[in-house]
Amino acid sequence: MKNNTIVFVIGFLILFTTYGLIFGLFLNDYSMSLIAKYPSVFRNTPSIPIIALGHSLQTILLIFLFKKMNVNTLMKGVYSGFIVFLLFEAIFSIFIYATLSIIPITDILFNIFLSSMIGIIGGGSIGFLLGKFN
Fold it and tell me: Where are the chain's structural domains?
C-alpha cells in the first residue's frame, strides 16, 4: 500500500506539472483567447481542484492498467503511456469535435499529439516507479 501511494503521489505530480507547463504556461495565450472568444462555453478561469481530480484519475488509471499489463520499466511505460494517452485523448477529442463546432480539427489533432507526448512522460515515469517500488 505504501509503495502504491508513493507511485501515485510522484506520478500525479509529474502529470499535473507536465500538463500545467504545456497548457497553463506555454499555451496560456491560446487558452485565454478561446475563453475570451467563447465565454459561454469556457469558465473564466479553469478550476484547479477539478483539474487535479482529473489528473488523479489519470494517474490511478495508469497505475491500474500498468499493473495488469506488467509494465514496470521506463521503456514499457513510455510505450504504454503513449498508446493509452493517444487513444484516450483521441476518443475524448473526437466526441468533442463531433458535438462542438467552435474547435477546429487542427486544434483537436494538436491536442491529441500533445496529450500523447504527456503520456510518454507520465507513462515512462509511472512504469519506472512501478519497477522501483513494487
Answer: 2-133
